[in-house]
Write a structure and sequence with these properties.
By secondary structure, the protein is mainly α. Helix content is 74%, strand content 0%. It is built from ten helices and no strands. Helix 4 packs antiparallel against helix 5 and helix 6 packs antiparallel against helix 10. The N and C termini lie far apart (35 Å).
Amino acid sequence: MNPITQEKAGQWRTGEFTSRLWNDASGILDRVNRLAFLEKLAAGTLAPEIFVDYIQQDAFYLGNYSRALAMLATRAPSQEAAEFWAGSASSAVADEKALHTQLMGDRRLSSLPRPEAPSPTTRGYMYTLLAACAYEPYDVGAAAVLPCFWIYADVGQRLALRAEAVEGHPYGRWIEEYGDPAFAEATQRAIDLVDEAAESASETVRSRMRDVFLDASRYEEMFWDAAYRRERWSL
């Protein structure tokens, strides 16, 4: 497999704090770039059954991710930040629901079975974010939700570069969504807000921000891998 190389990633404007977060997560990001799920997705060879599993797990996750963003909006220190998180909470449901409906309506996917419940990884990820946004300081919650923006946007840009070479790519619509300039703009705003939060945070809070950012980054890696393995609960 040819990994989705880091040098082809988009250029993000980072402050001192988020630059350090991205550097600290470099090992996780390197593993993400080599995941079989993403390699096969980029090449258009991912099994439809696996893609359907992923889309349904994504739907489970996004319902709770939007709740985490909405809680974050209520605790934001400025009207501008509150509007961004609230707007993101709304679009996480509306835009993704529309995309999922379109994808699942594809004749190649519509008849395939779907998981009926969140996988262990999905459940762990979404409840981790809900807890961070509900019970931790605002700054910590903002750092916790950032990887879902940042890693998806970064991976999406590189997926788009590779998918362009595949004529009639079966998953091109999904890849287009995460390689979209509007999503990159929202990601940049989320990065900026985390840097702003870190500027006035204590060292204790900044350390906690780092911890939850890395935890969520690990969950991003695990989420794709769990979908590839079609992870289920054992009875």
